[in-house]
Structure of Glycosyl transferase:
Amino acid sequence: MRVAHVAPLAEAVPPKLYGGTERVIWWLTEALVDLGHDVTLFASADSITSARLVPCAPSGLRLAGIGDHTAYMLAMLNKVLQSADRFDIIHFHTDLFQFPIFRHLAHKCVTTLHGRQDLPDFRPIFDAFPEMPLVSISDAQRAPVAHANFVATVHHGLPENLIPFAPGGGDYLAFMGRISPEKRPDRAIEIAKRAGMPLRIAAKVDRVDQRYFEEQIRPLLDHPLIDFIGEISDAEKPAFLGGARALLFPIDWPEPFGLVMIEAMSAGTPVIAWPGGSVPEVIRDGESGTIVTSIDEAVTAVHRASGLSRTGVRRCFEAEFTAARMARDYVALYRRLIAHSRPAPPFDMVVPA
């Protein structure tokens, strides 16, 4: 099968540091190549892939200091359009830009939505372009816009050996990802202090969250149990996650997926999480972690974390969240789309239902 993957240009594929979407695209692209498919990746020039790379920016735009990505994105979509007849499927990971440009090719396009869908910002696009097929990364993610043209839910997966199983665990709690109000690092800090267990925070601070970090979080870091590490690379994740007693995921928002949960599970590290968004789809309560609804419950879960089988946590990961499984799910979807494919009428003849 000839498949094009169109990545955002904020980060390289894979990203140098933070970048969950680009990381998933990389894992999926490599897994599809391993399955024998002819894959082309449209991404920044510093991307690394076994697929055919079409460079669309000199490097990832975030680390290059470029704030507005619109011009680069539109130029990339023009490149994709010029070679569209080469592909059986064009798989977008770029949210909305492609909808008006590729409307006439909707029969061979699919878009994975990687972000939250509960805000009203993007809802008009689904009504305006109802023919564009969509993939959700959890059933919870699609619930606020259930009327949209979702053709599948495909949970993320990562390579089995990327974060090796660590049978021993460690004596600290881990928080990894992004410092922001919805991720609730303040909850993680309070849990660690009340449980009397060290907390290591490996997280980036986006510009938009800098004030929140300085005013709300930095004052909480001056405590002997709290160690703020900052943003870490992929190479540092196995030791960081594998050495933890548990991962804290104390979110306060409808999480679309939560990649860090399956990264921890790959290491055999159980997850202690609030039940927002995708969490009940990812965590088997009592097997791969504990779902809680209060600080008190989380502190109790910390003390019981060592009683969960790390081997059992790893088995949950292997059963449901590998990149190979993700790739097989997408291939099945591609084949279904191709089997039912028919060119769309000219855009001026499309009448929303």
Summary: The radius of gyration is 21 Å. The mean pLDDT is 94.
